[in-house]
Structures are given as structure tokens and as C-alpha cells.
């Protein structure tokens, strides 16, 4: 009994540390949904150009995922967290010169560098959490930690809207009527709005890195590492459930990022009286609030019901909400999109834990391979933008429907571990 209490105490502090990290990087990541309309105005961008915010951010995850896995395999979890935080701090600092120059490619560079740091954090944190306790409680711990991250994600759109968007929308006709000097002053003022929030984030990430470096964290002993020929990355592809899990991550992230990226645009297309961009951002906050509520409940639910069964029901619920949003208009339609967050709330911890199940010494490598699927956030939103430009904003939400069909398949058959 005493040893169990000692073990629980030993794992408590690192769990709190990792959950705090998840809070801040989820908050930073979900400011992007407000940053898109802001940079579109500040840098005078087209819809396609503004969508590259998500491509730069999630593209970094794709490129850094495997190197991140190799890094933590050699250096360990603590080094992964510290390095990820410092890289993210550098990316946040780049926002300052980007705003000074009002140079969009530099903004994209800043987002890419920040995301590279977050990728290293995520490759480190998720498998670390699965090891901090019994294997049977891995999905529950991931869901609880993801709920803490969701709190940051819920706060982010609200704070972002207050800091980056206006109480009253400035019509494009008014901006077009500015003189050259007035326009330059207006655009410079818009760009400068990003300085305070991102420099603050840089300070927070640096302080967190110092804390992680200073405290004592338990060294998690891995299962016997694979060696020789089996150490090759290509052998992970023998695990079909892991490959299907990468696909599930692709479609889960693509659908969620696509929906929240287009909520403000969709809201403005409804042409509802008094609904400004700043107010429309509250629907993103509501989406993330439902994610938070779902994850708090999911931490309990996943200890009672098989994770794949929960995934099946969540996929069906998300599909139904997006369908209702497409078939209706007004505030009800927007509310349906926000409520999708409740059904998608526990999908990530489920597909992650199912994807790395029974991998033994391959777990670290598999977690980085799994993270490759996050590139869905870089691909699905521009595809939705193209559909929106050609056929209309409502039809863009057909793509998330396709995503949820795949998640249904993964929960039904794709997660099954087969011989290799």
C-alpha cells in the first residue's frame, strides 16, 4: 500500500508539469483561428494566402515528427520538453520583427518554428503520460491531460479576439477609401497587435523550460529496446493498426482544424445582424469549451467503456452535427458546428492509445510516426477553402464528413492489433 502511494506521489508532479505544458501549447495553437482573419486584413491577403497559416503550422508537425522521435529516443523525455519549449519561444519572438516589417512570409516562419517546438513537446508528452501509471489507465490520463489542454484552447479564441479583432468590423470599402499614408498607418497598427501576446508567450515558454530543467522528474524505464534489423523505422509499418492510426490522426486533425478555421468566415457568410468577427470568434471558444467538457467526462467514461466503442459513437455524433450545420442556417447552424467539439473531445487520446498499443520497444518511434498524421491540419483546410471558393462555404463542410467516416472505420475495424 505504501509503495503504491509513493508511486502515485512520484507520478503526480510530472503529470502536473506535462498538463501545464499542454495548457500553454494548446492555447498558443488555437490563437491561429483568430490570427487567420487578422493577418488577412493586416497583410492584405487573399483567402488562399491566409489559409497558409494552418499549412505552415501543421506542416511543421509533419516535418519535425520523425526527427523529434529520434531526438527523445537518444536524449530522453526531459530534454525533449526543454528543447521543445525553447524552440517555441524562439518562434514566438520572431513575431516581433514580422510585425515590424509587416512581412507575411516571416509570420509564416514564426508559426513554423513555434509548431516545430510544439511537435517536439507533443512527441515527448503523450508517450510520457502513458508511462506515468498503469497501462489500463493510459487513455484516461491522456483524456484528462487533453482536457487541461482544452482549457487553454477554450481561452485562446476569446483572448485572441480581444487582442487581435475589433469590436466593430471595419468594412473593406472603408479600408479601400484610405489614402496611401492612412492605409500604411492602419496596416502597421494592425500588424503591431500581435507583438504583446506573442512576446508574452515567448517569456512563458522560457520560464517553463527553466522549471522543467530544474526539477526532478522520474526516469521512465522503457520496455527492452529493439535492436539490429528490427530497429529500422520501416518495421513499424508492419503494425497495420499503427498505420490506420496515422490516417485517423490525419482526418481527426484535418476535420477539427478545418471546422474552427472556417467558423468565423461561415458566421460572416450568414450575414446576421450585429455578428462581428470578434463575436463570431466566441463560437470557436464554444467549440473548444465543448471539447473541454467532453474530455472531463471522457476521463471517467473511458475507464468504463471500451475506447473503440466510444470512438464509434463520437464519430457518428460529429457526422450528425456537421450534417445539421450544412442543412440549416443562422445561429442554430453555428451552434451545431460548435457542438461538434463535444463529440470530437476524446478522439485524440483514443486513437493515440489504440495506435501504439502492444508495440513494446517501438513505442517511441511509433509515437513520432503517429504524429505525421497531424499534417491533415495543413491539407484539409486549404481543400475546404478551395471548395468554398468554387461551390460555397456550406459545401466545404463535406470534407469533415469524409473525415468522420474514416474515424468510424478506425473505431470499428482499423484499431485491431494483428500479428506481424
Mind explaining what this structure looks like?
The protein is mostly helical. The chain has one domain: Up-down Bundle (Growth Hormone, Chain: A), CATH 1.20.1250. Helix content is 78%, strand content 0%. It is built from 17 helices and no strands. It has helices spanning 2-30, 32-42, 47-75, 77-101, 104-131, 138-164, 172-176, 180-192, 195-214, 240-269, 277-301, 307-327, 330-344, 347-355, 363-371, 376-391, 398-414. The two termini are 39 Å apart.
The assigned structural class equals mainly alpha
The CATH superfamily bears the name MFS general substrate transporter like domains
Integer-rounded radius of gyration: 21 Å
Distance between the termini: 39 Å
Helix coverage percent of residues? over 70%
Query: How is the quaternary structure best described?
Result: single chain
**Broad shape:** globular
- Overall pLDDT level: 83
CATH class: Mainly Alpha
Largest sheet at a glance? Answer: none
Uncertain spans, ≥5 residues at pLDDT below 50?
1-6, 223-231
Structural key phrases:
0% strand, 420 residues, disordered N terminus, Growth Hormone, Chain: A, mainly alpha, 17 helices
Q: How do the helices and strands line up, and which of them pair or pack?
A:
Layout: H1 2-30, H2 32-42, H3 47-75, H4 77-101, H5 104-131, H6 138-164, H7 172-176, H8 180-192, H9 195-214, H10 240-269, H11 277-301, H12 307-327, H13 330-344, H14 347-355, H15 363-371, H16 376-391, H17 398-414
Amino acid at each position: 500500500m505504501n509503495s503504491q502511494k509513493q508511486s502515485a506521489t512520484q507520478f503526480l508532479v510530472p503529470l502536473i508539469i506535462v498538463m501545464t505544458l499542454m495548457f500553454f501549447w494548446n492555447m498558443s495553437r488555437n490563437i491561429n483561428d483568430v490570427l487567420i482573419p487578422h493577418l488577412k486584413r493586416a497583410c492584405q491577403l487573399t483567402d488562399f494566402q491566409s489559409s497558409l497559416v494552418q499549412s505552415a503550422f501543421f506542416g511543421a508537425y509533419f516535418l519535425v515528427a520523425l526527427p523529434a522521435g529520434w531526438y527523445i529516443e537518444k536524449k530522453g523525455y526531459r530534454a525533449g520538453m526543454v528543447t521543445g519549449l525553447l524552440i517555441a519561444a524562439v518562434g514566438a519572438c520572431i513575431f516581433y520583427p514580422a510585425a515590424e516589417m509587416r512581412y507575411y512570409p516571416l509570420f509564416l516562419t514564426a508559426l513554423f518554428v513555434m509548431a516545430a517546438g510544439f511537435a517536439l513537446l507533443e512527441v515527448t508528452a503523450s508517450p510520457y503520460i502513458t508511462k506515468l501509471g498503469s497501462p489500463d489507465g493510459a487513455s484516461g490520463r491522456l483524456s484528462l491531460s487533453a482536457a487541461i489542454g482544452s482549457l487553454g484552447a477554450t481561452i485562446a479564441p476569446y483572448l485572441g479576439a480581444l487582442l487581435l479583432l475589433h469590436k466593430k468590423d471595419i468594412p473593406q470599402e472603408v479600408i479601400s477609401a484610405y489614402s496611401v499614408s492612412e492605409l500604411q498607418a492602419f496596416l502597421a497598427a494592425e500588424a503591431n497587435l500581435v507583438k504583446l501576446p506573442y512576446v508574452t508567450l515567448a517569456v512563458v515558454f522560457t520560464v517553463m523550460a527553466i522549471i522543467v530543467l530544474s526539477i526532478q522528474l522520474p526516469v521512465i524505464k522503457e520496455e527492452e529496446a529493439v535492436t539490429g534489423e528490427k530497429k529500422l523505422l520501416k518495421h513499424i509499418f508492419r503494425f497495420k493498426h499503427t498505420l490506420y492510426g496515422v490516417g485517423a490522426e490525419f482526418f481527426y486533425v484535418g476535420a477539427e482544424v478545418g471546422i474552427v478555421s472556417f467558423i468565423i468566415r461561415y458566421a460572416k457568410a450568414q450575414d446576421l445582424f450585429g455578428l462581428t468577427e470578434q463575436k463570431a470568434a466566441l463560437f470557436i471558444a464554444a467549440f473548444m469549451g465543448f471539447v473541454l467538457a467532453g474530455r472531463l467526462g471522457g476521463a471517467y467514461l473511458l475507464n468504463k467503456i471500451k475506447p473503440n466503442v466510444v470512438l464509434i459513437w463520437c464519430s457518428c455524433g460529429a457526422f450528425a452535427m456537421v450534417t445539421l450545420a450544412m442543412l440549416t442556417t443562422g445561429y442554430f447552424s453555428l451552434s451545431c458546428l460548435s457542438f461538434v467539439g463535444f463529440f470530437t473531445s476524446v478522439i485524440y487520446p483514443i486513437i493515440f492509445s489504440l495506435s501504439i498499443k502492444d508495440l513494446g520497444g517501438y513505442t517511441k518511434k511509433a509515437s513520432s510516426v503517429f504524429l505525421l498524421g497531424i499534417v491533415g491540419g495543413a491539407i484539409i483546410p486549404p481543400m475546404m477553402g478551395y471548395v468554398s471558393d468554387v461551390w460555397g462555404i456550406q459545401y466545404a463542410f463535406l470534407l469533415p464528413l469524409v473525415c468522420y467516416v474514416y474515424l468510424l472505420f478506425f473505431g470499428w475495424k482499423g484499431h485491431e492489433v494483428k500479428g506481424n
